[in-house]
Design goal:
5 helices, 7 strands, alpha/beta, Rossmann fold
Amino acid sequence: MNKILIVDDSEDLLGTLKYILEHQNYEVKTLRDVDDIFPGIDDFKPDLLILNLYMWGDDGRDMCRHIRTCGANKDLPILVFSSSPTLLDNYESYCANDAMEKPFDIKTLLQKICSLLEHALHFSNN
C-alpha cells in the first residue's frame, strides 16, 4: 500500500482528500503545519508528498527546495498545488515533480498521483 503525506492548512480539504485517497487504497497522513513536514516525512516515510504552496504565509516553493536538499528525501515525489496559478509556474525550478491548480478535479488528482508513484517505482528499479 502506497503512503501519501498531504500538507495543507485547510482541515476540510485534508479530511476530504484523506477520505477519498483511503478509499483508493492509499495510506494517508495529513499535516496542517509546515513545521511538521520533516518529522512527518521521517516518521511516516511517504511514497508521495502533496504540498500546498501557500500556507499561513509560508512559501512552499522554498520548503520544496529544502526537502530536496535532504539526502533521504531527494527522490521523494512531490505534487504541489495552489489557488494561485503564478506559484505553479516553473514548478520544476523549485524541485516539484508536478503541479495542480486549486480547485482541482479529483479524477485528475488521482491520475497525477498514480503517474508519480509509477514513475518513482520505475526510477527506483533502475
